[in-house]
Amino acid sequence: MSHTFRYLIDHAPTPGERVALPAHDAHHLARVVRRRVGDPVEVIGPGGEIWPATVASITADAAVLELGTAPRRGARRAPLLVCVGLCDWGRLDTAVEKCTELGVARIAVFAGRRSQRVPTADAWQRRRERLCRVAQAAARQSGQGGLPEIDGIWTLEELCVALGARHAIVLDPGAATPLIGALADRADDRPLALVVGPDMGFDAAELARLRAAGAEVCHLGDTTLRAETAAIVAAGITLAVTGHLDVGPSAPPTHGETNA
After folding, report:
1. pLDDT digit string, tens, across residues 55-93
2. In which element (H, E) is residue 93 found?
3. Which of 111, 113, 204, 232 is most exposed, with minimal Cβ within 10 Å?
4. CB atoms within 10 A of CB 120
């Protein structure tokens, strides 16, 4: 089966509409994946619906797609906040990419006491723009209708405030409770947040502050995972246990998905 290429648009389309792609998407369509007039593609609307489309016209930097008559339901975003401690930029790219594919609605980066080389506000803004591009590519690949919110770089205090009334779970190798056990024992429907420390982990004072903010500290087994691996594994487990992965692609369209 050949791969179907998808493109995001920022408005709710109508059946049969012709949609002009931005220049960078047109370049991708024409020069990278080399589609031609009449080739099938898909368009993802802001509500998560996926429309069949065909290439109506295309040049090196312009492309128009003609939509079909009815969309199908796209993948849902989960009301989950994943907070990742500052680590190598390439590994943060991986965490954002995979969490976007899973359907995480919000991702935040924070700096702990053991974080190294915390960027300036300008450097972070440039890096955030790259993370947004990574998320966009992951959303197109996975069929996500919306992009996750990407926040940062938070201090530990800002992180504690953002956790607010959520059921927050902090991942730490020294914890006594397994993540899957804590999720199975959940007795409320508060939105969830997962907190993964930076490469060097949390110190004792940081864990105490997070506990004081209401967070539960759990582990992911008897191995020490890198920050991005822990974030991806924990997000996958959480979505599976909470039922987010129970809905298959044949489910009918839904409206009003909740953001984290």
Report:
1. 999 998 899 999 999 998 877 788 999 999 999 999 999
2. helix 89-102
3. 204
4. 9
Does residue 106 sit within a domain? yes
**pLDDT (tens digit, 9 = 90+) per residue, 3-40?**
789 898 888 899 999 999 999 899 999 999 999 999 99
Considering the domain boundaries, does residue 254 fall inside one? no
Are residues 10 and 114 located together in one domain of the fold? no
Residue whose token pair is 């920022």: 10
CATH number of the domain enclosing 238 = 3.40.1280.10
Q: Please give the residue range of the domain that contains residue 110.
A: 78-246
Report the C-alpha gap between 79 and 216 in whole angstroms: 18
Does residue 16 lie in a domain region? yes
Three-state DSSP state, 19: strand
Q: What is the pTM of this model?
A: 0.83
Whether 55 is in a domain gets the answer yes
Token pair 């965490």 in the structure block, residue: 95
Give the pair of three-digit tokens for residue 3: 């791969």
